Amino acid sequence: MDAPVIDLLQLYPRDMNIYGDWGNVLVLRKRLALRGYDVRLHEYNPGDTFPGQVDLIVGGGGQDSGQNKIQADLLAQGGRLRDLADDGLPMLAVCGLYQLFGHRFTTHTGEVITGIGLLDVETVGGPTRLIGNTVLDSDEFGTIIGYENHSGLTTLGAEVQPFGRVTKGDGNNGTDGTEGARYRNVIATYLHGSLLPKNPAVADFLIRHAAERRYGSFNDVPLDIPHESEARTDAAARPR
């Protein structure tokens, strides 16, 4: 019998893939393979044809110049992405794409980069960068560990929940104690590092919902990965 297939889409890797965000794709592909799934990896950049079958979407961060390069294409795909999110498709949007999944990003020079409104968030460019190792507390995922590096200050609206509550670091804006945003099966965050190698519970959330949405079930085989917990403990103990 052929292995079940998961179609994994990396969104705008040419322009939105900095600070190790490619590692998130590698983790998803490996954890799916260990559970018996074949992974078809797709890339989508401006001007490409959007794949007909997508089960899981991952997008990374980029500088303001990268956001400007993808803005028109992202707006053109906004309706499709909103519909997929509403239908429960899991997504991970990091940093720059987190900002553009919101209503708008106003840069520190006053330029407005319009987002697709998939997330009820707004971002303005701040005067300084928020940089360093970050730890969050989450009711669903436990302790979340990552590294933030952003100057955008994001405010959450009523239609989203935070990804986690900051116990170390600045998070969305350095003032309200929130980090990232959640809408249905979409996770948006400023955490690089890559995020998923340090947070297997988050990775498994994404692949579980991808498999269940496509096949109605998930082959939840326990994974024995040496040193996984030790790596998390070491990362969480690093100074800010």
Automatic annotation (TrEMBL):
The entry sums up its family as follows: Belongs to the CobB/CobQ family. GatD subfamily.
Query: What keywords were assigned to this record?
Result: Cell shape, Cell wall biogenesis/degradation, Glutamine amidotransferase, Hydrolase, Ligase, Peptidoglycan synthesis
- Protein name in the entry: Lipid II isoglutaminyl synthase (glutamine-hydrolyzing) subunit GatD
| UniProt-annotated catalytic positions | C95, H192
Q: Does the keyword DNA-binding apply?
A: no
Task: Write down the superkingdom of origin.
Answer: Bacteria
Q: What does this protein do?
A: The lipid II isoglutaminyl synthase complex catalyzes the formation of alpha-D-isoglutamine in the cell wall lipid II stem peptide. The GatD subunit catalyzes the hydrolysis of glutamine to glutamate and ammonia. The resulting ammonia molecule is channeled to the active site of MurT.
Q: Which organism is it from?
A: Arthrobacter sulfonylureivorans
| Reactions that this protein is recorded to catalyse | L-glutamine + H2O = L-glutamate + NH4(+); beta-D-GlcNAc-(1->4)-Mur2Ac(oyl-L-Ala-gamma-D-Glu-L-Lys-D-Ala-D-Ala)-di-trans,octa-cis-undecaprenyl diphosphate + L-glutamine + ATP + H2O = beta-D-GlcNAc-(1->4)-Mur2Ac(oyl-L-Ala-D-isoglutaminyl-L-Lys-D-Ala-D-Ala)-di-trans,octa-cis-undecaprenyl diphosphate + L-glutamate + ADP + phosphate + H(+)
The pathway noted for it is: Cell wall biogenesis; peptidoglycan biosynthesis
Binding positions for substrate per the UniProt entry: R129
